[in-house]
Amino acid sequence: MRNIKLMIAYDGTGFRGWQAQPGQVTVQGVLTEVLEQLTGSRATIHAAGRTDKGVHASGQVVNFKTQSLLPPEELERACNALLPPTVRVNSAEEVRPDFHSRWDALAKTYRYRIFRGRVVPPFLWKYVQHDSCAMEFDLMAEAARHFIGEHDFTTFAASTGLEECDRERTTTRTVYRSELLRVQTANSRDSAEEWVYIVRGRSFMRHMVRKMMGTLVDVGRGRLAAGDLPKLFALRDRSKSGATMPPHGLCLENVEYADPMNSSIKGNEIS
Q1: Exposed site from 17, 195, 221, 245, fewest CB < 10 Å?
Q2: Among residues 11, 52, 104, 218, which one is catalytic?
Q3: Residue 218 designated active-site
Q4: What is the CATH number of domain 107-253?
């Protein structure tokens, strides 16, 4: 049995998220169907992150087990020939048998984009949240730094939908980077900016990044102070955070693993 790792990108606009659901079009579902056509068997595909409906990915990592002898480069080519153009396989490789895209991930980086101009260019609207209202960038940038470190993120995560799961889940997370950047938007008629929130952490709970971003927006609008964030952590009450921001501004940008060169298999050897 071979273990295949794929690096994929997708436009999440037309999907009900990553995870397969009966009667719904999902990224996992579409990819599963294509791989079954190519390998002759239905594989379970594991992803580094289960993105929600409408969330995009430029650096998603998945793995699956197969008995197919298709070379990785042929698998990559064939997948891209059969997948919809909104899903692309950027690389394929055989990895060690115990590699798992989710459990082996050391860090993930997400990006949330807010377009600050008056009119959103038509080729950007699916990937940015438009907000041209008055907000204080410097206060938001200051608040973003409070997320760095190990904290209980209960206030900044959505419910799983099951009370028992909410009670039993671990809500402590470690964030390595939390930074708000100003980026000039290319080809914008009014020389608009994007405010791009970059957050890198070990793992994230449901809606966590979108609620963190919503809290930063509340700081920018004066509804919260940057110094309120430590109090919000202590409250452990998700009703006290900012709103959950719309999904289309969010993108899973990168997933990191230890010693990636040591996970690949070339021929019959683990390199």
Answers
A1: 221
A2: 52
A3: no
A4: 3.30.70.660
